[in-house]
Structure formats: structure tokens, C-alpha cells
Amino acid sequence: MRRILSTVRDGRGFDIVLVGVPFAFLFALAGLPLIYNILMSFQEVDMFSLGSFIRPFVGIDNYVALFRQPETWPILTNTLIFVVGSIAGQFVIGFGLALFFWTNFPGASWLRGLFLVSWVMPGLVVGAIWNWILSGDFGVLNFFLRESGLIEGNIFWRSDPIFSLWAVVIANIWLGTSFNMILLSVGLSAIPGDLYEAAEMDGANGWQRFWTITLPMMRSTIGAIIALGLIFTLQQFDLFAAITDGGPNNSSNVAQYWAWDLSFRQYDFGRGATISVIMTVFVMFAAAVYVRSTRHEVRG
Amino acid sequence: EDVKLTLWSLDRDIQPAPNLIKEFNAQKNGIQIEYRQIQFDDVVSEAMRAYSTGKAPDIIAIDNPNHAMFASRDAFLDLTDMIKTSTVIKPENYFPGPLKSATWDEKYYGVPKATNTIALYYNKDLFKAAGLDPNKPPQTWDELVETARKLNDPSENVYGIAFCAKANEEGTFQFLPWAQMGGSTYKTINGEGAVRALSIWKQLMDEKLTSPDTLTRSQWDSTATFNAGNAAMVISGPWEIDRMLTDAKFEWGTALLPVPQEGAQRSSAMGDYNWAIFSNSKHPEEAFKALEFFASKDATMYKDFGQLPARADLPVPPTGNAMKDAALATFLEQMKYAQPRGPSPEWPKISKAIQDAIQAALTGQMEPKAALDQAAEKIKSIEG
Amino acid sequence: MTQQIELSGVNKYYGAYHALRDINLSIPKGAFVALVGPSGCGKSTLLRSLAGLETISSGDLVIAGERMNDMPPRKRDLAMVFQSYALYPHMTVEQNLTYSLRIKGVKKAEAKKAAEEVAAITGLSDLLHRYPRELSGGQRQRVAMSRAIIRHPKAFLFDEPLSNLDAALRVHMRKEIRALHDRLGATSVYVTHDQVEAMTMADHVVIMRAGVIEQQGRPLDLYDRPANRFVAGFIGSPAMNFIPARTSDDGTSLILDLPGAPVLAMDLDLPPGHAVSVGIRPEHLSLATADMPGFNVPVAAIESTGAATFVTTETTPEIVLVLNGRSTVSAGETIHLTFEPKNIHVFDAGSDQRIEVGTVLTQAKTAS
Amino acid sequence: MTQQIELSGVNKYYGAYHALRDINLSIPKGAFVALVGPSGCGKSTLLRSLAGLETISSGDLVIAGERMNDMPPRKRDLAMVFQSYALYPHMTVEQNLTYSLRIKGVKKAEAKKAAEEVAAITGLSDLLHRYPRELSGGQRQRVAMSRAIIRHPKAFLFDEPLSNLDAALRVHMRKEIRALHDRLGATSVYVTHDQVEAMTMADHVVIMRAGVIEQQGRPLDLYDRPANRFVAGFIGSPAMNFIPARTSDDGTSLILDLPGAPVLAMDLDLPPGHAVSVGIRPEHLSLATADMPGFNVPVAAIESTGAATFVTTETTPEIVLVLNGRSTVSAGETIHLTFEPKNIHVFDAGSDQRIEVGTVLTQAKTAS
Amino acid sequence: MSETARNRLMLAIALIMAAIYLFPLYWMYVTSLKSGSEMFANPPSFWPSSAQWQTFAFVWESRNMGRYLWNSTVIAFGSVALIAVLGTGCAYVLARYRNVWVDVGLFLILMLQVLPASLMVTPIFVGFTQVGLLDYPRLAVILAIAAKSMPFFVVLVRATFMAVPMELEEAALVDGNSRVGAFFNIVLPLARNGILVSAILIFMQAFGEFVYSKSMIQDVSLQPASVGLNSFMGPNTSEWNNIMAYATMYVTPILAIFVLLQRRIVSGLTSGALK
Ligand SMILES: Nc1ncnc2c1ncn2[C@@H]1O[C@H](COP(=O)(O)OP(=O)(O)OP(=O)(O)O)[C@@H](O)[C@H]1O
Ligand SMILES: Nc1ncnc2c1ncn2[C@@H]1O[C@H](COP(=O)(O)OP(=O)(O)OP(=O)(O)O)[C@@H](O)[C@H]1O
Ligand SMILES: [Mg+2]
Ligand SMILES: [Mg+2]
């Protein structure tokens, strides 16, 4: 007993406790549900068997059926576009803002705080507001574009199959930018100042310092942000519900919304779960990339 | 010890359920009801989840097209016998459409709670401005298109008509009456009439007589554009009357839904909820008592809550507001033709097939005929 | 000779703290200037101001004829070795070294070659592929050094570049830096706390204290004629001994405050009884036979490095002397010390300023 | 005398890198041990292993009679001064100093008093309320020092604690550390690259190279009898001169590979023509008049610190000699060098090991 | 360009960008003051024709917002506390070592967060019913939120710990601290800002959490504000002005608090490593 106590205070035991408890917790509250979902994708599920693990096993029927549906591939493609588009936009704009506010002019930190508004606003409200902003007829975006002479006629962001997915991407970029910005700001301020001084002495201009010092030093932060951004993007739901409902004609439908639609509008839980398993594969890839990126991290 | 019942519905504090429960509890007749409000989108999933874990409420208000899904699996209690002996709830008093939606396999699995339907609202001021007779709303589909053309005025940001073709139940709700007027049903959704109906919708879209956002906008939001003067006509339901009275700064009128051609059979959508008792309720008798109490209050439902009772035997008393009374008359008339969606336990999937067809056609990705053929195919395989 | 770096009236404040006070300094092209002074006196601050990493609060900074007060560091074309090394932790040693070259767009192969050459000088050849975190303290410092010398800048700024190296490597590096300096004809400013480094490498030594330049000049001039007591004590190791003294009543000699009160007859322009400090370097004291003029002191401690022996006396203030090689003197013994009169320095006891004396006429002899 | 710290057969690997190789070391209670060696030789690693910050890969570590291989650092009761200072950036100087006391539960007032006492010794009294980021390099180092000495641990581990201080402060701190050591009767292990520090402070010096202990012993023993060429070159500054030589055909003398090939007659047990290195320290060479035995060499460079002058010759290998004070010798001149025969060291040219020689019979004289 | 001129220019640019970015917020404010259909007007009206201030009082009263906000606060604090307690240690360990197990840990942590709440809620609901947790609905929601947001927290805080020099912890160990003590005295304070930022982000998320709350908390008096907000939406009604008024009242205070806090946190992140 004393031995155990002492390793918890001084040795590996400390690490094991710190990691063990959260993982047990996570396993129970996130791992089991995930397994439940995976299991469900191989089963026939209806409203009466939701409460149990044991259900008729159907093998990969759900998968076969899913991939027979004509909309499956377009929706998966949409998902990819949505994820890549959103993350790229959020990250680039967020990084730009973080760098901008990093120059630390008076008032910078106040204004930076205001940018967090998108993180605070309830999804329902954000969805509704973007719904109006992106509306074809009375939308404010079209109004500004028209007034500034960028477009002639209105763009029907939500209802034109060409634009509908991008409408959600725009809203989602707005939503995720603040999160990217704030975390990148924290990451930026953790880079030791003397590295910049050294680089400046070495003749690097601002642009070069950014590419050779800032970016590589931020590797772990960036890895974390992109990994988290991916997960948030894959969980984005409110915006689809509020802006396009996946329409028109699935042109803006994505995996997570479709999974919900199948499960909770068409009550086809098996197929809904099947899609969530496919999403898991998506994330598995991203998680692997993230874990790899941590190999090059720099320890303070 | 009082018997405790739980009741779930989507009614908010200004709507019937919570208020009726308050009244009911105040009677102190040995039954107390606990109320929980659920959101529209969640009613079914919450109910399923609760039912399958044994946590279901005693009473629920369920959207009529979803009723069959529960009834067919005996998740709801068969009320036929209780209704037979009831002095308050008599099937013959109800509109046939709503009653049918609560029926499965010739048995009553619930009682209609309220009902609604859709009709045509139009902006009389704009009619006048376009040189049209404000007392002669369009009667047929062709007239409707023609009128919309005349009213359409892009320079003033006015569309001829607004309706809803959104890819959810609302789209089906708005489209199905058109198909039915054309002589089709959901089982024959690729019938000639339905194809014509969809072609007319497409024409409205193609000619920009209606906003392209019709594809993604809810009925509520579409009607708001009418209220704001940006659409000259709108197809919507009686739930809009009150808002229109405060928001619309013009004179408006209502009309029955236009038909394919003069003399054609009428039809309309049928919305709103039914009461049902879950089959695993421990207190079915008491729960039915509660339903009887609710039914006894149908007479004042419109007055108190602005909802139409599903009752053919109860006159809706005039409110004193001429525009409102006129609209009400239209809706009561339209109500006679209202038909339920389904009933089918697979309704959500059927509805989805129809929405897909509408959207595919209206975005121009498929011809109306082909789209509906595909939907019919799907529906056939769903129904087995 | 053109002036490469010129500071006039430079002040620097950190908030309310006055870190540099009215600094005036001219550094000719090709000069090797050592900056010395106690810890916290502002050496790093001065260097960083030259580099442009700190903006000076007032005064003018001119480099190669151009006023540079507001020029960004990278346009000043200086190379700096940081006291904190400031290695790029995410780059290997080789990448650290070639960073400035790559910025300039030098070709990969060429940069690699340059890195190898420099690494050979600094003994890093085997470590080129390591990351800074895998290096020992001294190895890091060598990387920092190498990073500066791989470029051929207008001037080098070194902030204690060798402080973590062992003596042998240090001597080696010292030579390399100086050779490099000569070869490139560069101008170097070199902060160090190592006496030997400052004296042997530099053409010009600047001594600072609390943000002020106390004295500057050629190394041996500082050694021979320190302007005040601070400089006298700072230059030379072990430090100069200071013995309190006062002028005799007739004003022609100094009476040292030591056992036996030795007297130095000399040419002085001071009132009688004036208090002064007499400075004498440890290396200028020597043991004498009892019959020679000098004074007797008891020994407190003996330390030997092999090459030299340090003797500390049991007087107040204590006196240190350096003897060559080993010595048979042991603690507790009394020794007879002597010095050549030309080697003494006299400072005013109040102002600590140097007092020039004429030739010391007589050797010290005990007054009694 | 009990052994306070004992290492037997200690090895340490960083991955594949073998950082400590079979280290055997006994440190008696109360000893002051200096650890020296070139940069990267494993000094810090050894210290960190003692402290428990690195687990040793094999071997035994015993502190105060108890095997400590797996003991957590806090139970070893050692104080350490880190090469990188490792000050707690979120605490003021005072809080940094009193941190270990507060952990032990020492009362506030008492801790404060202790901090003030220590600060007075290390000259930090005015800085107690600053944060580390507001200190200069040397000031930080003093805080690190103070943090260790405020405790009264079983042993002190110092990792180059004075490398950033100026000479005067260094001499001062050196004395303080040693006095502290004596007062507390503590055991100290002191890593340094400063010759003078190692020789004057330590009772026992350990010389490492590439993870191996090359020699250990009393400071002057190392100076007088280095076990191999590496140690000979490492101890003493400037470093020992090594002159290639070979035994004469009759095996009784060494012929130096210098202009004029000076010959040393001595008692040797080597085959004729055997290649050796003859070591002679710079301070043991002196100028001689032409008539004395010795050899002529041209002068390449002259450097003077004031107290001493370093002369470098134009030979291969170059020879350095130290002259006291200033010298009139100038570059280009040819000088006549001599040394006392007892001061030479002979090393095998192949193995670099010391070769004991009997008394050198005759002074060097030019063979010709 | 002089320092002040540069600062003014930067400030001006910042204000413009903020104005663009904050437009949705502004739109929320004006919509809350508009009448029902005015927000659908074309061209859009940027200022309400007649500001309906009474909306606020009405919304506050009719929805008993005080109670909703209280519940939100309880849930948010509970979740943040739980996450901080569990997640900080986990992040620390994952930052301290560099081996295969850490890789596996990081991988799992990300994987466990993949599914949207709407898909996770069913299994969690089922599980909680079986262990009787639904009888403590707010606790149940706190647990669910903790599981959902902890990976986020761990990944962020880990990055913060990476910036704390290992040597400081070692110094503390040698100074006589246990691992536990060094963690609390040295490592935690140095990572404080990063942890705070992450905790605040989590707090805000938990404050607005919706999916779990609406399914698991059936008793109105225990529901958080996000669920209350939804009560303005019906199948054929969406009282946008009320929703926006409600949202205004619930977003503005948090935003204000954050603006004040982050100023200290993000700009105070300068006490990095030394030497
Ligand atoms: N950012 C700062 N804020 C306040 N005071 C500072 C700051 N940086 C340095 N100082 C103070 O300025 C003085 C000069 O510092 P500087 O680093 O130039 O000393 P230094 O001569 O390089 O000393 P060392 O030899 O110890 O490195 C010191 O007293 C230091 O405490
Ligand atoms: N984490 C590590 N991984 C790999 N090699 C390491 C690591 N830490 C140190 N080393 C190597 O181990 C050797 C010994 O390092 P150590 O820090 O003990 O040197 P040192 O003797 O203290 O040198 P210095 O005087 O320069 O501080 C060096 O060659 C160094 O590069
Ligand atoms: Mg400095
Ligand atoms: Mg070291």
C-alpha cells in the first residue's frame, strides 16, 4: 500500500492515475456509445429495440444498402468539400486575425475578445441569422454585394444547388474563425521572443520569419486546432438545419446531417449508424495525421 | 394518493395543452398531470427513446402523419372500446380526415387534438394595383399562374406567389393537396395530375414567379415575405391569421386552393396533432379521462388558443374581426376536403421520397415525370 | 579609419529603470571591442540596442555612416550571438547554421558546405543532425557561435559567447574568433566577463558600470592607468588590492594603513592628512627577504592552481598576492612583502578617482 | 571518513547514445568535488543522475549508505543549481528562494529571514521583489545559486553556477560557496569548465571525457602527474605544449622535433626510435640568455593581459609560453627558450598514456 | 511611420474587421427590436422602424429566464469543473512523454469525440436510464457534456503544457517536492493561462449546450436557457424577435465577461521560459 502511495506521489503511478481516470470516464461515456453505434450499423434496429444491445444481426446489409443509394457518393463528396473548405477558411482567416492582433496595438485585446462572439452565440440563433443573411431576396449579403456592384442579380445562396453548400461553408467559417483565432493567439504568445530576434538578426523579414519560425513553432498548436476543427466541422449540424436543410435536392447534404435525417426523421437507425461509422473512418485518418504531427513538436 | 400522469406535447404556454392541464389539475379529481413540452423535431425521437427504455409518458400529442407508426406497432393503446362507452368523445363528431389519421386497422388509437389546413392568402392592395379584381382570386391552376405573372414585379421586389417546397415534411404537406386534386394519392404519386401539379410548381419557379428560396424556406418564413409585401399571394394555414393581422400593412383576403380545372375535385392538406395514450401506461383509465376532459374543451379552443378543433359538430363563433372571420370561413370550408397523409407506419420514408422528387424537379435536375416515377418506385418498395 | 559604429548620447529606459546613461562610443571599422562590466550593468542592453532589438530612448546610433535608430535589425546586417543562445528548437544544428544563408537564397549545397566548414571550426561536425534539445550547454553555445560566424556581416555582436566552454575549447575558439575577425575585416563587439578574453582579443576595451561607461581604451592602458578605483578593481584577476592610506603631515609621502605603517615617499599635490587608497595588483607583490624594504603580514590562506599560488593575508583589508608556481608559504606564517614603487596606483578616497603621482621617490619602508 | 556518494559501474544511455560509461566514483562526506571535462562529455548527465532526474541505465548509486537508484529526487535531499538556472518564472526572486522552505513547511517569517540572509551573500538584496524575466543573466544565475544554498541539504550539486558572472563577482562567489560548504559540512559536486575554480575550490577533481572518467585525484596531483595526454592538455591554462619526440638510438635520450632538435638525456625504458610526446606547460618555459642550454624559436604572436604575456611561437606544433608582466619580446623575433627538466611530461605517442621517467639527467641542449 | 500613426491605422483596420465580423451579432440585436415580419423585408432594414423594447421584458417574464440562466450556469460550472479536474492531469501526462502510448492516447481521445451529440444522445440516454442517472438530470447532462468536451480540453491544454520547460519541474523535484507537489506548484501555475482559456471556451460551450439537455432534462424547472430558447419555435411559428431578444440577454453578459477576461489571459501569456 505504501509502495503504491509513494509511486502515486513520486513515480509512474502519478502519471497512470492522471491518465487512467479520465480514460475510464471517457470510455464509459464516449467509448461505449461509439461502440453502440458501430454495433447498430450491423443490426436491424427499430424504435422498439433502441434500448438493448442485442438485435437481429444483418451483417453488412446496411452498408450495401447505403452504397446503393444514388445520393451516397454526392453526400460524401459534399462532406469532404464542407470539411476542407470550412477548415481552410477558418484557419486562414483565424490565423490572419491572430497575427494581426498579435502586433499588439492599443485596443487589440479588447477587440480580439469581441471576436469570440461566434463561439458564444447559440447554434439556433447563429443558424437563423445566417439564414437571413444568406437569403436570396432580402438577404443582407446579397444587399451588400449588389450595392457594391459585385453582382447584378441576387444569388440564391441557399436554394441554388451550386451555392447551397458554400452558403453553409461561409456560415461555418464565420463560426469557427474565432475558435481558431483565440487558440492561435495563445500559441503565438508562447513562442520565445528571442527566436524572432535571432531570426531578425539572421536577416529574415516578416514573411520569412512567419514561415520559418512561427509556423514550425506552432506545429503542435496547429495540429491540435486542425484536428479539433475537423471534429467540430464534422459535428456541425445547426447550420444545416437552419439554412438549407441539406437541400435543395441534397446539394448541401453532408454525412452528419444525413445520419441525423435517417435516424430521426426517417427512423432508420441502422443506416444512420452506418453513416456515423463512415465518419469515424474520416476522423481516424485525421487523428492519425494529428498524432503524427505531434512527433515534431518542440518541448519547452 | 393522487394518480400521477405525464403528458408530452409541443404546446407552448399560450397553446392548449399546458392550460388545459392546469384546469384539469385544478379539479382535484384524484388525477394530477405533469406536463413536458417537447420540440416539434423531437417529438417522435424522444417518444421512441422513452418508449423503448420504459420511460414513456402516459399521454402524448403526436403529429398526425406519425400516428400510424406507433399505432401499427401497438405502442399506443387501442381506445376503441373506451370511445364506444364514452359520452364525450364520439367519432361521428369529428371531421373525417383527422379521425382517419388517428385510426389504424379500423381501430381508434387516439383522438384528434386540433386540426388545420392550407388555403390561398392574397394581397388585395396589390391586386388593385395590378388592375385585378380584389374579390376574384384565382380559381384554377392556370388562373393562379396567370395571376402570379400579373402580380410579379421584380423592380418592386414583389413575387407573384409564395409557398413552401422545402425538403422536409412541410414540402409534402403543401404538395400533396395539389397531387390529390389532380386525382393522385401518395400511392400513385406519379399519376398524371401529380405530374401536372409539379410541372406548375416548376413553371412558377422557372418564371421566377416565386422566390427560388421557396426550396429551402419554411412556410412560416415564406408567409413572412407575404406579410412584408414581398409576395402577392401565399399558400399557408390558419395559424398565420393572427400574425398577419398585426404585421401585414395591407388588406388581404383568402381563397380556397385553386383546382386543376373548373369543377375538379377539391382536396387539402391536413395538419395538427392527435392525442394518444401509450400502451404501457399504468393508468389508462385515468389517462382517457384526461382526454375526455380535453375534448370537452374543444368548443372554446379557437377562442382561447386560436386553433381549430377537429370537430364538425362545433361551430366556430365569430370573432368580430371581419378579415379574420372571412379567413376562418375559408379554412372551415377548406377543412371539409382535408385528407390525412397516409396513414402509414412508414410515412416518414414515403414523405422523404416525395420531397426528393419535388426538389429534384424544381432544381431542374430531373423532369417532373421522371422524378415522380422514381418516388413512386421508392414508395412501392417501402410499402412492400 | 572610418567609424563603423557610433553612439552619441544614447540613453535607454526600461520603464523607469535607466539602463543606459548617455553612452558615447565610436568603433572604427575593423576594430575588436570588448565590453566588460559587472553583471547587470547594461552590456546586453547596449548590444541589443546596436542590433536594433531594443529601441534606444534617446541619442543617435550611426552604423556605417547611416543613422540607424529606427532601422529594423535585419537591415543592419549584423550577426549576433545571444547570451541565451536563442537556437531554433525546431531545426537541426545544420538548419540552425544555414538559416541565414537560406534566407538569403544561397543554394542548398553551398549552404551545406558552409555549415560543414564552420562546424569543423567549432567542433560540431558530429552533431549537425541533432536538435538543440539533444545538446549539452556548451554544444548549444557553439551552435549559437557558429550561426553568427557562418555569415559575413558588417559587424559581429557577441554576448558572452564562450561562457559555457571549457578552457581548452575556449582558447581555441578565442583564436578562431579573432582570426575570423581579422580575415573578414569585420567589426566586432564582444561582451564578456572573462578578463583574459577581453584583454587578449580586443583592440579596445569598454568598461561599464550601472549603465555608464567608466573608461575605455586599449587593454593595457586600462591595466596600467585605470581612471578610477572601480576600473582598477575590475581589470585584472585576482583584483587589485586597495590599501587605505593618508598623506603625511609634510605632504611628501603616503602612510599606508598596514601593520608597521609602511611609508611611500612621493611627489604629491595633496594637502596633509588627505585620505587616499593605494592600489597594488596581486601580481606586483612579491616575497622578499627580511632585509629588503617592505612590510610584514600574516598569511590567512593559500590556494594553488599548479601554475600559480594565491596567498591571502590576514589583514584588513585582506591583501592577495600571486606567486608563480608552487610556494612553501603556509597559512599562519608571517611573510615579508615588497613591490616595485612604479606599480602603485593612488585613488582619492572620496571620489575614487585616480590621482596621478610623480615618480615614487623611495621604496616603501616601515615608518618605525 | 564515510562515503557520502558512491557510484559503481554506472552507465547511462540516451537511446543509443552511451552518455556515461562505467562510472566509478566515491565522494566522502564533506568533500568538495569538481567535475571537469570538455563540453558534452557528460558532466551534466552525471549530475542529473545523482539528483535523480535521469534514471541510470545500470550500476549502483548509493547516497549516505542507501541505494538510491530508484529513489525520487525529493527523497535524496540534494540541492542543485541548474546550468540553465531553471528559475520559476511565476515567482519573485524571494519566492524562488524560499520555495523549498515553504514546501518543508517552514514559517513565513523564518523563510523571509533566510531569503534575506542568502540574498545579502549573493548581492540580491535589492532584487528580491523582481521576477526572473526582469533580471540580467548574471543576476539570474545568482538567484539559482541562492536557491540552492538556502537549504541545508546532504549535498550540493552545482552545474556551472558561475559561468555568467564577471571575474570579481566570481572570485567573491567562489569564496562564498567554499565557505558555505565548510560551514555546513556539506558534500558538494561542482561542475565547471573554469580551471581556476576547479583547482582552487575542490579537494578532489574528476576529469571526464566522452562519458568516461579519465582521471581523478587531488588538484595538484592532476597538475603534476596527468595520467594521459588528454588530462595533461585539459588541466592548466594555457594548455600544455606537446612536442613530438623520439628516443635516440641508444635509448638514453629524447630528441625533440624542434628546430635544432634539442636533446633530453634521461632515464627511459623505451626501445630506440620510439615516438613520444613531450609535454611542457607554458608557465614552465622561460626566456634564457643565449649561453644557457635551450633552443631557439621564432615568435609568431604576443598577447598580454597586463599581468602576464602569452607568447606563441612560429613552430609546428606551435608552442605557447607565459611570461610574467609585460615583455619586450615582439613578433618575428627569435627567442631562446629553456625549461627545468623536472617539469617535463612524457606520453606515449600511440596510446597517449603517461610514461614515467626517472630524473632527467641533463638539461636540454641542442643536438648539434 | 511613427508609432502612434501605425497604432491608429491598426486600430482602424481592426475596427473595420470587427464590424464585419460582428455583423451577425448586430443583426441579432436589431432583429430583437423588430416586429415579426420586418426582418423579411426587402430591401433589408438596418434599423427597426419602431423599436420594440418591450420584447425584452416580455421574454424575460414569460420564460422565467432567471431560472433558465441559473440552470445553464450550474451545468456549465459543473462541466468545466469536472473536465478541468479530469482533463488537466491527462493533458499533462500526454505532454510530458513522447512514446507510443502517448500516441495511442491522443488517437483515442480524438476518436472518442467524433460523433455529433445528436447521434450520441440515444446510447447515452439508454445507458443512463439503466443506471438510474436520469433521476439526477443535471448531473447526467454534466457527465455527458464532460465526455463530449474533454477531448477538446485535453488537446488544447496539452499544447500549453508543452511550453512549460521540463527543467522547472525538475528544479522543483530537487527542491524537495513530490511529483504531485511539483505539478501543482510549478507546472499548473505556468500553464494557468492556457488552462483558463480552454476552460472558458468549454464553459461557453457548456452554457449553450442543447442536445443533451433537451433530451435528458424533462423537468422544466431544471432546464437550461438553451432549451428555453427553443420554446419560441413551433412547427408553424418561429418568434424570431423573441428568440433574438432571448439570445441577446443570454449572450451579452457572457461575451462581456470574456472580453474582460481574455484580455488578461491572452496578453498575459508572456512569462515563458528563461535562458
Ligand atoms: N525588461 C526589463 N525590464 C526591467 N529591467 C530590465 C529589463 N531587462 C533588463 N533589465 C535590467 O537592466 C539592467 C541591465 O541588464 P543587462 O541584461 O543589459 O545586463 P548585463 O550587463 O548583460 O548583465 P549580465 O552580465 O548579467 O548578462 C539589469 O539591472 C536588468 O535587471
Ligand atoms: N536528451 C538527450 N538525447 C540525446 N543525447 C543527449 C541528450 N541529452 C544530452 N545528450 C548528449 O549527451 C552528452 C552529454 O551531455 P551533457 O549535458 O551531460 O554534457 P556536459 O558535459 O554537461 O556538457 P556542457 O559542459 O557543454 O554542459 C552530449 O553529447 C549530449 O549531446
Ligand atoms: Mg547580459
Ligand atoms: Mg552541462
From TrEMBL, chain A:
It is a multi-pass membrane protein. It is found in: Cell membrane. Keywords: Cell membrane, Membrane, Sugar transport, Transmembrane, Transmembrane helix, Transport. It comes from the Bacteria. The chain crosses the membrane at residues 12-39, 80-102, 114-133, 163-189, 269-291. The keyword Transport applies. Its main location: membrane. The keyword Phosphoprotein does not apply. Gene3D superfamilies: MetI-like. Residues 76-290 form the ABC transmembrane type-1 domain. Belongs to the binding-protein-dependent transport system permease family. This is Multiple sugar transport system permease protein. It comes from Neorhizobium huautlense.
From TrEMBL, chains C, D:
It is a peripheral membrane protein. SUPFAM superfamilies: MOP-like, P-loop containing nucleoside triphosphate hydrolases. One of its GO terms (molecular function) is ATP binding. It comes from the Bacteria. The keyword Transport applies. This is Multiple sugar transport system ATP-binding protein. InterPro entries: AAA+_ATPase (IPR003593), ABC_transporter-like_ATP-bd (IPR003439), ABC_transporter-like_CS (IPR017871), ABC_transpr_MalK/UgpC-like (IPR047641), Mo/tungstate-bd_C_term_dom (IPR008995), NA-bd_OB-fold (IPR012340), OB_MalK-like (IPR040582), P-loop_NTPase (IPR027417). Keywords: ATP-binding, Cell inner membrane, Cell membrane, Membrane, Nucleotide-binding, Sugar transport, Transport. It is found in: Cell inner membrane. Belongs to the ABC transporter superfamily. Residues 5-235 form the ABC transporter domain. Pfam families: ABC_tran (PF00005), OB_MalK (PF17912). Its main location: membrane.
TrEMBL record, chain E:
It is found in: Cell membrane. The keyword Transmembrane helix applies. Keywords: Cell membrane, Membrane, Sugar transport, Transmembrane, Transmembrane helix, Transport. Residues 69-261 form the ABC transmembrane type-1 domain. InterPro entries: BP-dep_ABC_trans_perm, MetI-like, MetI-like_sf. PANTHER family: INNER MEMBRANE ABC TRANSPORTER PERMEASE PROTEIN YCJP, MALTOSE TRANSPORT SYSTEM PERMEASE-RELATED. Belongs to the binding-protein-dependent transport system permease family. This is Multiple sugar transport system permease protein.
